[in-house]
Specification:
Blueprint lengths: L12 H8 L6 E8 L6 H6 L6 E7 L4 E8 L3
Antiparallel strand pairs: 1-3, 2-3
């Protein structure tokens, strides 16, 4: 898996940044989705390897989606 499923969250990016004291400007947000039936493991497989977390996880019956937050290297 590209990311541990415990890091696939239903909370919003705003909530995650606030809870973790992180600056949103230090992250790239990238939408991820999968139409596989095995969820959330299917989504974990398509998350970019450098993603710290996936927020906004949703199950839409035929696919799953979320937003991967990837730290920007400066």
């Amino acid at each position: 898996m590209a990311i541990n499923i415990e890091k696939i969250l239903t909370i919003s990016a705003t909530e995650w940044f606030e809870m973790n004291g992180k600056n949103p400007r230090e992250y790239e947000a990238r939408g991820v989705h999968s139409d596989e039936s095995k969820v959330p493991e299917a989504l974990a497989e398509v998350v970019p390897s450098k993603a710290e977390v996936v927020v906004g996880y949703r199950y839409y019956g035929v696919y799953v989606a979320g937003t991967a937050l990837i730290p920007i290297k400066r």
